[in-house]
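Submission checklist for the structure archive. All mandatory fields must be present; incomplete records are returned to the submitter.

[x] Identifier: Phosphatidylinositol transfer protein N-terminal domain-containing protein
[x] Organism: Hyaloperonospora arabidopsidis
[x] Residue count: 207
[x] Sequence attached
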Amino acid sequence: MVLIHEFRVPLHMTVSEFQVAQLFMVVNASEKLTGDGEGVEILVNEPYDNEDGHLGVSSLSGWTIPRNKGQYTRKHYYCQSKIPGFVSALCPDDSMVLIEEAWNAYPHCVTVIVNGYLSKHKFYISIESMHKADSGDSENVLGMTKAELSHRKVEVLNIAEKMPKQTLKEDCDPATVGGSSERVGRRNSFVTSNGNCFTTRCAKRSA
């Protein structure tokens, strides 16, 4: 069964500003999670051009490669330390490694995660993102089919809203940090009704 959950997240910055923020956070998170043989290993990081569709389907994830051009990355996530010891002792080593393929043609991005042990036809996580300059009310920016739309659940996330027992550094809290741009002379507080938005579709199949 495929579950489709679409998140709409209004942001207090332009689409081009968020591209810089996204690149920073990906690198920052990878560095924090990596160490002692665990974490993220980047295996491939190279440009791709598939505007004519000649790349076809990925032999690794079985995913149809997007017909655009951008940056392709392949990563391994080693997560044995995140699994209880009595469980990891019974699991094959490759079952504790997640393999990620990503095609970043910003503002459109596709990420697919599979497992080295489980069949890619039985388990995968796909995340498709579209970053769009609106307030999050555009319908079907990801171009889903009627069948996919019938299974879709939409949720609007207010990232400026304080969560119970939330612990964030002040310089990382979207509720207190305003978007700024010296080039346009702007500094705004977070306004969900007048922000830009990226919409993410997450499809997960398990068997």
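[x] Structure attached
Curator remark: Residues 29 and 94 are 23 Å apart (CA to CA). The chain has one domain: 3-26+37-205.
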